Amino acid sequence: MSMSMNLAKELEKLNIRHAIKGEVTTELKDILLKLTKERLSELASSYNVPGRSKMNKSALADALMERITDANEVSIALRVARQKDWELAQRLLQVPYLHDDGIVPGQYVALMNRGMLFSFYSDEKLTYLIPSEVQAAYRQLPFSEFMESRDRCQLVSQYVDACVNLYGVCSIGTVYEIYLAQHTSAESMTPEEFARSAKLLMSEQQAWFYEGGKFISEGVDGEEELKMLLDGIDKPHYIPDKERFLKYADDLYYDWTLQLENLKTYLTKTFPKHASLVDDLVDEIQLVCSMDASLDEVIYELERRGLEFNTEAQFERFIKLVIDVKNNTRLWANRGYTPNEFSQLFSKQQPTSAPSVKVGRNDPCPCGSGKKFKKCCMQ
Q1: Cα dist. 109→14, 86, 127, 141 in Å?
Q2: DSSP reduced 3-state for 214
Q3: What is the mean pLDDT of residues 207-219?
Q4: 160 to 19, 206, 208, 209, 331: CA distances (angstroms)
């Protein structure tokens, strides 16, 4: 069985696991009564329904009916919905229900967790729908005003995501300053409008969390890394033009550099029979470098794919190319700058008359990363 067939089977299993088993119904009250009490309690918790722990299934369903069908709740859920979720919602808002084997959990789970969307599995068929009462509440919304509000919310989401992906940690003030610098005064949101949209986004599960006025990536590895990033608060941020900056809103986006191209070319020539492994390895090396991990991690990724160099010279060439990649990879520790860029930036900030100082291997790196010189720019 091919990898794509295996993936399709796994996705189908996930979809079935999320679905209600049984006959399709489009009325919200009937749907809620089909859910387990545990699932109803989870929904009630997300809506902060008071006294939910003492309610039976029928009482929970009644309380949730009132919350889920509230036009303001429907508006919030659809304003913060990611583009893929919104596109599916648009399809489902036009029909009573939909059969589509190509839908994946990432397109509907967020709305499902708000009780706005449900799926059923019956007669070996998956069906997706937005309950009729939720559809009616959506139709009550003033469309143009709703769409303007959604567009603003999505733009704020893009700027927050881009900042988190580039810097790891970023204050809401910095996010707004970057946004403001990339928009004319006529089209710009006020700080209050921006903050309102940001607060709405916090109601949805994100790849970041908000704490102490800062957006913090879920990828930050513990208190030590968080402290390191917060200690660098006075470092400048790498801020490209608007078009390029917003590309970083995509979690999977990274700069395809000349150094990555050189590495891929070398590996392809060295391992001509393993093109797919090489592609995967280069992606993994980029990720390892972006996490500022050691070269040991790179060697591990090489070895676990069963790729071996014939000579020591080949291996040394590989390591040199990896170091070139790392020195041209954007790092949270450098506020989005690559080590090479940050080193140049640091040198420009030094007085020209200052005497040169020899930096020892175990001294703090002059780039300000907080690491020892031998573990940072010396590499």
Answers
A1: 11, 12, 14, 23
A2: strand
A3: 94
A4: 32, 10, 9, 11, 17
